[in-house]
């Protein structure tokens, strides 16, 4: 049986502690006085917050003690509904220090999706912030869980959220019902002894549950991926090497912690190297340029549409970006008049999934540019790959195209509330739904997707999820969601609609309908109306012929732009 193996994990350079408490202890001791996090806090009228590694460890311990005081025990799920801000990082590590499981939740989720996530993840304590732009998270929580708005300081008791006992919110001036303000929450842990916290942290093992990440799946609901303590820890150390980060790295990104790229590639890999994360809670290009200049950022970590927005901003030409070093040779940053980048550094090309806790296959940043575009790279340490014929199940050899099946130290334990048998084959491999092959030199090539997942703005969008929601949209008779290639966004989400006879609706009305039910980035950028019978169907009239529909959509969009 042909299985491709990456280098042994135990021989990988630079891999340290394999638990989140151990990771935090190691980096905070090694880099105690280094600046770890910088953030201009909207909840403090824009005041700049600066935490050293020692500060981060201290804040994480405060959170952990408060969680212990609020009843978090081994394996309890701690929801983190925050933007990219220092308290979110402290909550992430604090959950594990207390023995719990960190569950970063999407701040894009509207109330109905948040309702599902809180129940599906069995959240015990929810740590959030009072507001983020126009969102009012405390309002959302008490709207979903009226028991949280009942006066008193006892635990929340809710049959809808049977495991939820406490909520605390950054920026909440005074207690609201059972929802505690952040300082009040932290003070509650003041009588928890350091010895107890240290004893808890020491009992956390690499095999223990560590993190649950949610990503839009191929079904009508987001899927939760349960990862061991080892999985994110390995990613942190390995990705620090992949990106060649060090203790003078100053990374800017606005990516959120609830995406694996934000959690691992941004936060974890920067902390593993002893560098500083210059945080931005919500992306705004003018403010991003000011932060990069003021904080002498060395590495910008952006999605393609963000890079384009930065380059198009009127402040771009005059911005002082001379501190940037880790920039790709042909990127907009490398072309900026003030930038002289490191010519030996290239943006790593990689392949990964939420199920593998981010990167599984990668080139390193010192890979020669001429090699980067030829493949996705080689397997990262400890990983194994099989290429499987999707029709027969036969394991294929080098050069043979088939479905990519993966296993390794950062592969999820299983989907939340699913058995391992439902997630993996008999040998423990996860079948990705992606198609590719590996060559004689062990480079892996990705050639397409078997699944229908749409990748837009760096995030996955499930067509099935949108189509299920549209069943409740009164004017809609038939809906089909497709992805169309886009130079800036990767793909754009396009909704194709057949209306019921006599019904009327505008694209904006249908977008508004979805905006109330799904995260904003999932709302289709385009809504196209088709006459009855115009959407191409199979002969049995039971399935849409997607390839033909995509061609129709592309022609429609091209005509609209002409």
Radius of gyration: 24 Å
- Terminal CA distance: 53 Å
CATH class of the domain at 456-561: Alpha Beta
* Unreliable segments of 5+ consecutive residues: none
Q: Major sheet, described briefly?
A: 6 strands, antiparallel
Q: How much strand content do the residues show? A: 25-35%
* CATH fold-level label of the domain at 456-561: GMP Synthetase, Chain A, domain 3
| Helix-and-strand structural type | alpha/beta
Helical region count? 17
Mind explaining what this structure looks like?
It contains 17 helices and 29 strands. It has 562 residues and is an alpha/beta fold. It has a domain of 106 residues: 2-Layer Sandwich (GMP Synthetase, Chain A, domain 3), CATH 3.30.300. β27 and β28 form a beta hairpin. α1 packs antiparallel against α2 and α2 packs across α3. The protein is globular.
